[in-house]
TrEMBL record:
Chief place of localization: membrane
Family: Belongs to the DRAM/TMEM150 family.
Keyword annotations of the record: Membrane, Transmembrane, Transmembrane helix
Transmembrane residue ranges: 12-34, 54-73, 85-111
Name of the protein described by the UniProt record: DNA damage regulated autophagy modulator 1
Family matches, as InterPro entries: CWH43_N, DRAM/TMEM150_Autophagy_Mod
Record carries keyword Transmembrane helix: yes
A biological process from GO: regulation of autophagy
Domain CWH43-like N-terminal: 8-115
Topology class, membrane: Multi-pass membrane protein
Transmembrane among keywords: yes
Localisation per UniProt entry: Endomembrane system
Leader sequence residues: none
Length: 128
């Protein structure tokens, strides 16, 4: 069962590296495009307008996939450890898997819906 998990140590490393690159690359593209101030911009502003929004969305979607793979790998490792000695409750292991996957789904939602542009037109006339 654990044979397919051999060599999976690169997944958490790739998750952190890819996620960091997603924020850095979208920041650099936003600064070079003139969409944000280069000094202390809001992180939400660095991925709201094209082209950086597409780059940010793609990279964070892949980060969500890597996060789900990391959570599943952790679940299987703890499950295997519980077979030889009592490491933790299987219920807690399952709860941590579900919460991790929900977090990854949330990260995918954030990646696909970066910002909302709401235009409000107001008319000023004599009628109130």
């Amino acid at each position: 069962m654990l044979c397919f998990l051999r060599g999976m140590a690169f997944v958490p490393f790739l998750l952190v590296t890819w996620s960091s690159a997603a924020f850095i690359i979208s920041y650099v593209v936003a600064v070079l495009s003139g969409h944000v101030n280069p000094f202390l911009p809001y992180i939400s502003d660095t991925g709201t307008t094209p082209p950086e929004s597409g780059i940010f969305g793609f990279m964070i979607n892949f980060s969500a996939f890597l996060g789900a793979a990391t959570m599943y790998t952790r679940y299987k490792i703890v499950e295997k450890q519980n077979q030889t000695c009592y490491f933790s409750s299987p219920v807690f292991n399952l709860v941590s898997l579900v919460l991790g996957l929900v977090g990854c789904i949330g990260m995918g939602i954030v990646a696909n819906f970066q910002g909302v542009t709401l235009k409000i037109s107001t008319e000023i006339n004599g009628d109130i």
